[in-house]
Amino acid sequence: MSVTRTGEPSDADPHRWWGLVIIALAQLMVVLDATIVNIALPSAQRDLGMSDGNRQWVITAYTLAFGGLLLLGGRIADLVGRKRTFVIGLVGFAAASALGGGATTPTMLYGARALQGAFAALLAPSALSLLTTAFTDPRERGKAFGIYGALAGSGSAIGLLAGGLLTEYLNWRWCLYVNVPVAIVAVVGAATLLRDRPGHRGARLDVPGAVLGCGGLVAIVYGFSEAQPRGWTDPSVLALLAAGVALLTAFVWWQRRAPSPLLPLHVVKDRNRAGCFLTMALAVIGLFGMFLFLTYYLQVVLGYSPVRTGLAFLPLTVAIVVGSTQISARLLQHVAPRVLMVPGTLLAAAGMLVFTRLSVHSDYTGLMLPGMLVMGLGMGLIFMPIFATATAGVSPQDSGVTSATVNTSQQVGGSIGTALLNTVATTSGATYIAAHLTGPARRALVVREGIVHGYTTAIWWACGIMLLAGLIAGLLVTAKAPKHALGTAPVPESVP
After folding, report:
1. Which pTM does this prediction carry?
2. Cβ contact 323:380 at 8 Å
C-alpha cells in the first residue's frame, strides 16, 4: 500500500470522515430506539388501551427481532454488499417507524416495533463493516472507532431525554416519527459518501437456523407474557415454553450440521466466551426490567412528567459510562476480567436491592439516586470486560460473528427478562390488590400500593438473577489479564 505526501494511504476514501458521521448517525438511531420508547410507553399504553401484561411487547418486540436476526443480518451484508444492506436497513427502519407512529391498535405497534428490530439487525452489522473498510490505517481506525463508540454509547441517554421531550411537548408517536427524517439524511449521505466492496457470492444464508433460533426465543417470551393472564400452570403457557425449548434444541442440533451455520458452535464452546455470553444475558435482564419499572413508577406513582423522568435516568447512564471508561478500561489491562465482573454484579445487585424499598411516597434524592449510581457503576464494571474478553483471541473470520453474538446475548437477555419480570410484577401486584382491597374508600391507595409491590417483587427476582450472573462469571470466566491493548478488540454493534 502506497502513502501520499500527507501520510494518508493512497487508496483511502477522501470522504471517509463524513462517511463516519453518516454511519454513526445510523448506529445512534438503532441504539436510541431501544430506550426512547421507554419514557413514551405510559402515554402509548393509555392511548392504545394496552394491558399491563402486554405493554412489555413494545420493548420486547424490538429487542427480540434485533437480537434474534443480528447474526443473519451480518450474513446478508456479506452476501449482497454492506452499502446496499445499509441503505435497505435505513429505508426499512424509517418505514417501520412511520408505521409504528401511526399505529391505531396495540398489535399494529407491536408489529412495527418488530419490523424496526429486523431492519436494525441489517443496519448494525453493515454499519460496522463499512466503518472497518473505510479506515484501514491503524491510527485512523482507532480514532474512528472511538468516535463511533462514543456516539453509540450515548444513545441510551439521548433516547431517554429525546423520549421525554417529544412525549411531553408533542406526543408519544413522535418518538417513532423522529426516525424518518434522520433515516432520510442517512440514506442521502450513504448514497453520496460511502463506498463498498462487492458482496461475496460464496456467502450462504442459514435460513433454517434463523427460523429455529428466532422461533424458539419468540415462543419462550410469548409463554412468559401469557403466564400473567393465564397462570404458570396453564396448558397453553406450558406448551409455548416447551416449544421454545424444543426449537432452541433443534437450533443447536442444526448448527452442528449446517454447511454455513449462523452461529459456529466452536465460538461458544470456549469457556471464557461462553461465560461472557451467559453473564451478559443474565446481567441485562435486571437492567431492561429496571428501565421499564422505574419509568412507570416515576410517571404513574410519583407523577413525574416525561421530561423529568428522562432527566431522572441520566445518573444511571452516566454511572454506566464512568464504570466502563474510567474504571474497567483502566484496570482491565492489569487484572483478570472476573476480578471486575464479579464485584460488578455484586454492586449492581446492591443497587437493585435499594429499589426493593420503594413505596408510594419514596424520595428520589434519598433513595432512587443512590440506587441508580451504585447499579450503574456495577453495570459498567460488567460490560467492558465482557466485550473485551469475548472478542479476544478469536480468528479474523470469527471476529464478526463473535461480536454479534455478544450483542445477541444482550438483546435476547433483555427480551426474556422484560417479559419475565413484567409478568412477575403484574401477577404479584394483582394478588396484593385482591388481598388488601377491603372497601372502595381505600381503592386508589391500595391500587398504587399493589403496583409498587409488584415492582419490588420483580426487582427481588432481578437481584437473584444478577447474583447468578456473578456466579457464572466467577466460575466460567478464567481468563487472565489481557496482554494486548484494549483498542485492538472489535467494536460491538450496539452499546447498552
Report:
1. 0.78
2. yes
Contact predicate 359/452, CB 8 Å: yes
Residue 69 pLDDT grade (very low, low, confident, very high; cuts 50, 70, 90): confident
Calpha distance 40→42 (Å, rounded): 6
Give the residue among 168, 132, 167, 171 at the shortest CA–CA distance from 148.
132
Interatomic CA distance for residues 93 and 113, integer angstroms: 9
* Rounded Cα–Cα distance for residues 26 and 125 (Å): 11
Q: Which of 176, 159, 207, 151 is nearest to 48 (CA)?
A: 176
126-168, pLDDT tens digit by residue?
776 777 666 666 666 556 666 665 565 556 667 778 888 888 8
| φ, ψ at 321 (rounded to 5°) | -65, -45
Torsion of CA 461, 463, 464, 468, to 10 degrees: 130
The per-residue pLDDT for range 354-378, each reduced to its tens digit, is 999 988 888 889 899 999 999 989 9
Which residues on adjacent β-strands are paired with residue 9? Answer: 3
Distance CA 262, CA 425 (A): 35
Q: Is 338 exposed, middle or buried (0-12, 13-18, 19+ CB in 10 A)?
A: buried
Q: What HEC string does the chain produce?
A: CCECCCCCECCCCCCHHHHHHHHHHHHHHHHHCCCHHHHHHHHHHHHHCCCCCCCCHHHHHHHHHHHHHHHHHHHHHHHHCHHHHHHHHHHHHHHHHHHHHCCCCHHHHHHHHHHHHHHHHHHHHHHHHHHHHHCCCHHHHHHHHHHHHHHHHCHHHHHHHHHHHHHHHCCCCHHHHCHHHHHHHHHHHHHHHCCCCCCCCCCCCCHHHHHHHHHHHHHHHHHHHHHHHHCCCCHHHHHHHHHHHHHHHHHHHHHHHCCCCCCCHHHHHCHHHHHHHHHHHHHHHHHHHHHHHHHHHHHHHCCCCHHHHHHHHHHHHHHHHHHHHHHHHHHCCCCCHHHHHHHHHHHHHHHHHHHCCCCCCCCHHHHHHHHHHHHHHHHHHHHHHHHHHHCCCCCHHHHHHHHHHHHHHHHHHHHHHHHHHHHHHHHHHHHHHHHHCCCHHHHHHHHHHHHHHHHHHHHHHHHHHHHHHHHHHHHHCCCCCCCCCHHHCCCCCCCC
Q: What is the pLDDT of residues 53-66, one digit of tens each?
A: 788 888 888 888 88
- Counting Cα atoms < 13 Å in the Cβ hemisphere of 77 gives 28
Summary mean pLDDT of the chain: 81
pLDDT tens for each residue of 392-405: 776 656 666 776 77
